[in-house]
From TrEMBL:
PANTHER family per record: BIFUNCTIONAL URIDYLYLTRANSFERASE/URIDYLYL-REMOVING ENZYME, BIFUNCTIONAL URIDYLYLTRANSFERASE_URIDYLYL-REMOVING ENZYME
The enzyme's E.C. designation: 2.7.7.59, 3.1.4.-
Biological function: Modifies, by uridylylation and deuridylylation, the PII regulatory proteins (GlnB and homologs), in response to the nitrogen status of the cell that GlnD senses through the glutamine level. Under low glutamine levels, catalyzes the conversion of the PII proteins and UTP to PII-UMP and PPi, while under higher glutamine levels, GlnD hydrolyzes PII-UMP to PII and UMP (deuridylylation). Thus, controls uridylylation state and activity of the PII proteins, and plays an important role in the regulation of nitrogen metabolism.
Cofactor: Mg(2+)
Keywords associated with the record: Hydrolase, Magnesium, Multifunctional enzyme, Nucleotidyltransferase, Repeat, Transferase
UniProt GO MF annotations: [protein-PII] uridylyltransferase activity
The gene coding this protein: glnD
Organism in which the protein naturally occurs: Streptomyces lutosisoli
Family according to the record: Belongs to the GlnD family.
Record protein name field: Bifunctional uridylyltransferase/uridylyl-removing enzyme
Gene3D superfamilies membership: cca-adding enzyme, domain 2 (1.10.3090.10)
SMART domains linked: HDc
NCBIfam families named among the record's database cross-references: PRK03381.1 (NF002895), UTase_glnD (TIGR01693)
Pfam short name (any one): GlnD_UR_UTase
Length: 821
């Protein structure tokens, strides 16, 4: 059925005809995007015109006006109908009756309606008081009735907007900033609001309003296409959910991608991010221009008065670098600059802008992009130095980098960047896309540059450490290959290329080892020393580890993690200096441990002691503080040796919402008066932290532990109740747990690594499974990032030796099956 046939059906059959024609249009597979939105708007126009005509016979001085998105002729499947019934005020009773004859059929069909009834004077007054009303009226479009009335209002509203622009545009900018603060950046969110988030449809509408003011205009290249892409995604979202929603929730992304004919949800998000980035960059440039124009208007009368009404003075130009000057608060090209001959100019201009903390002029970036020629391979030394200067400029680097990227200069300089550009990271720990994370890491690394001997290598490694995420397989392995190629291309010598490749390959080594391995085990320290190779590389890797974690998100770094990494670095440094790590010996119990063990044996029950642990930040690693940050609480437990101690303790701690960070378990034999073993006591030394609130009293922990050990406290049931009460996100499914054996990780124990969704009682379940497998846990190292737990358990057989290979694999399989159940 053609659009004409649909309109005829809608006009002939009233509301039911319109509903059928609307449904048919939305189900048409051949039409989508702008043609479908325009057709839906046209179909709706004809239906509403029919309602207006039928109800307004003999009535003069009335018109029906579409405003907002409907005024622009862009109707998504579940969009509101924004309507204004405009009248001259001569017969308000008849106008009210007409309004009912239009609004009620719309409501009867279940369509959302944003409506108003006003005279032109009332409409202008309301617009003057409410910026959102004014923005809607800027897109006013006549539907039916008195065309002259509508045209007069449009002319007056546009004139008001242009006359009041110096006052209203700052108000609009503040409104956009407040919305961005609430909704976040569309180009980084895993569940973005396509309309309200920064870089979304609201911002695109704001840019149209700025253009209508004639005060400034947005960069037009790519903006219309970006807006169309966001509207297409919203259409697909409305069709797949059947709801008027703008939030692209995780559980709907695959369906929306399929509706749009895209490969998968990641492809969908990447397209959304690319569109949002265009809108965000256009907004930055536009609001900067608005500010410049308004400042110029404020200053010009005073300058003219001072100069006696003479000609406008030339803008002052301050040199920043060869071919680069500052003018009017922006970095522009000097008059003598020749970007078609000066290959290094884009990097030099970017470095100068970042160093000065100024934005790069849009005109300058576009001129350089149009004239840019590839740099020779390897790059000249100046180009490499300017890249390092740009990366080391701190927070201003981000805005300058985005300006280069918006015009395609980054991918010309670094072709491998294309694979990580706008690439989403489906991990709640990460708050940025891959490319933005890399720049954030460089920014963080610039703050640590004084700690290393080669800050240039630190900054470039920060830029490249996750570059392999655009390729299949382990991103560290792929990244090493790419880093070698990029480092050689930009002019580093062979030795520096090798260091950069090592840093990229092992950028997760320190944090993973420190949080998941026993640092007292010489095998752990030796393996890290062999991978790193030199003191200089270790120093760089330490700084890169911290910068990477800080740039990931709040959950990725803490004083506790920092202290573990620093401890590992200290031990590895000693090995690299020639000091072989000593084999661990049975350390004599401390006086406190011995006292607790004797008391536990004497009473036949558990004995607990809590002790706060704090540590000041090392002077070489950052600023010190008189009030050191707590690293957790040391929990010492002594209990007569018996089965089920580990799951019982883990379960009680989970019940009291205590997060376990590390745990060590050892058996202590207590001699009698003649040197014989009188009994054995288990000593557990755990570091814990309160999930929220204050720590429970030791007496309460002990009472619950006693009940757990004697079987009167059903921990499994209690934790199941808590798990059932936890809020669940609809549609989010955690990947299955994975249990592996870390080969050659220790000479003294078998290391079993568990990766699973973090949940209350996870350690309790693991402890029970290991008890059932008849293995003893010597120590465990717990690492939780967001919703993911990565825990390493050092286990031995009943005689204290590592498990044979087949037995270790069997234990790992059984544990994985238990966790999957």
């Amino acid at each position: 059925m053609t659009s004409t046939d649909m309109r005829t059906e809608a006009e002939d059959s009233g509301p039911s005809g319109y509903a059928a024609a609307r449904l048919r249009l939305l189900q048409e597979g051949a039409r989508s995007g702008p043609p479908r939105r325009a057709a839906l708007a046209e179909l709706t126009d004809d239906w509403l015109t029919g309602l207006f005509t039928a109800g307004s016979e003999g009535l003069r001085g009335v018109s029906l006006v579409a405003v907002g998105g409907y005024g622009r002729g862009e109707l998504s499947p579940r969009s509101d109908l924004d309507l204004l019934l405009l009248h001259d005020g001569s017969d308000s009773g008849a106008v009210a009756a007409l309004a009912d004859r239009i609004w009620y059929p719309v409501w009867d069909l279940g369509l959302a309606l944003d409506h108003s009834v006003r005279t032109p004077a009332e409409a202008r007054k309301t617009a003057g008081e409410d910026l959102k009303v004014q923005l809607g009226l800027l897109d006013a479009r006549h539907l039916a009735g008195d065309l002259g009335l509508t045209a007069g209002l449009r002319t007056a509203v546009l004139a008001d907007w242009r006359n009041q622009a110096p006052k209203r545009l700052p108000e609009l900018q503040e409104l956009c900033a407040e919305r961005a603060e609430r909704q976040g950046e569309l180009q980084y969110l895993l569940e973005p609001d396509l309309k309200e988030a920064r870089g979304g449809l609201r911002d695109a509408t704001a840019l149209r309003a700025v253009a209508a003011s004639w005060l400034a205009d947005a960069p037009r290249e790519g903006l219309a296409d970006a807006r169309r892409r966001l509207l297409d995604v919203r259409d697909a979202l409305h069709l797949t959910t059947g709801r008027a929603t703008d939030r692209l929730a995780l559980q709907e992304q695959d369906q929306v991608a399929a509706e749009l004919g895209l490969l998968d949800a990641d492809t969908l998000l990447r397209q959304v991010y690319e569109a949002a980035r265009v809108v965000s960059y256009a907004s930055d440039v536009t609001w900067r221009e608005v500010g410049r124009v308004l400042r110029s208007r404020a200053v010009r009368p005073r300058l003219r008065a001072m100069l006696g009404g003479g000609a406008k003075p030339a803008a002052e130009r301050s040199p920043l670098a060869e071919g680069v000057v500052e003018m009017d608060g922006e970095v522009v090209l000097a008059r003598a600059a020749r970007p078609e001959r000066d290959h290094v100019l884009p990097l030099r201009a970017a470095a100068a802008a970042a160093q000065a903390g100024l934005p790069l002029s849009l005109h300058a970036v576009r001129r350089m992009a149009a004239a840019a020629r590839p740099l020779p391979t390897p790059w000249p030394a100046e180009a490499r130095e300017q890249l390092v200067t740009l990366l080391g400029s701190g927070r201003p680097t981000i805005e300058v980098w985005e300006a280069l990227e918006a015009e395609g200069l980054i991918t010309r300089l670094l072709p491998d960047w294309e694979r990580v550009r706008c690439r989403p990271q489906r991990n709640a720990v990460h708050i940025w896309t891959v490319d933005r994370h890399l720049i954030e890491t460089a920014v963080r690394a610039s703050e640590l540059a004084r700690r290393v001997g080669r800050p240039d290598l630190l900054l470039v490694a920060s830029l490249l450490h996750d570059i392999g995420k655009g390729w299949p397989g382990d991103h560290s392995v792929a990244g090493e290959i790419i880093a070698r190629d990029v480092a050689a291309r930009i002019g580093f010598d062979r030795a520096d290329v090798a260091v950069l490749a090592t840093l990229v390959r092992h950028h997760l080594l320190l944090i993973d080892t420190a949080t998941r391995r026993d640092l007292e085990d010489p095998a752990t320290v030796r393996s890290v020393a062999e991978a790193v190779g030199s003191q200089g590389t270790l120093e760089l890797l330490h700084a890169l580890t911290e910068a990477d974690a800080l740039a990931t998100g709040p959950a990725a770094w803490s004083s506790w993690r920092g202290s573990l990494v620093a401890d590992l670095v200290k031990r590895v440094s000693a090995v690299l200096a020639g000091d072989a790590p000593e084999e661990p010996e049975d350390v004599a119990p401390t006086a406190e441990q011995e006292r607790l063990a004797i008391e536990a044996f004497r009473t036949g029950g558990p004995v607990l002691a809590l002790r706060a642990q704090t540590e000041s930040v090392d002077a070489d690693a950052g600023p010190t503080s008189d009030d050191p940050e707590p690293l957790g609480v040391e929990l010492l437990i002594a209990v007569p040796d018996q089965p089920g101690v580990l799951p019982a303790v883990a379960g009680v701690l989970a019940m009291h919402r205590l997060t376990v960070r590390t745990a060590e378990l050892r058996a202590l034999d207590l001699p009698d008066g003649v040197g014989q073993v009188e009994g054995s006591v288990l000593l557990l030394n755990w570091r814990v932290a309160a999930e929220y609130g204050s720590l429970p009293q030791a007496a309460r922990l002990r009472a619950d532990l006693v009940r757990a050990l004697d079987g009167s406290l059903d921990i499994t049931a209690r934790l199941a109740e808590r798990d059932a009460a936890y809020p669940r996100r609809r549609g989010t499914i955690a990947p299955p747990p994975r249990v592996t054996v870390a080969s050659a990780a220790s000479r003294h124990a078998t290391v079993i690594e568990v990766r699973a969704h973090d949940a209350p009682g996870l350690l309790h379940r693991i402890g029970r499974a290991l008890e059932d497998a008849n293995v003893r846990v010597r120590s465990m190292h717990v690492s939780t990032l967001g919703a993911n737990a990565v825990d390493a358990f050092y286990v031995t057989g009943t005689k204290g030796a590592p498990l044979p290979g087949e037995e270790a694999a069997s234990v790992a399989r059984a544990l994985e099956e238990t966790l999957r159940a």
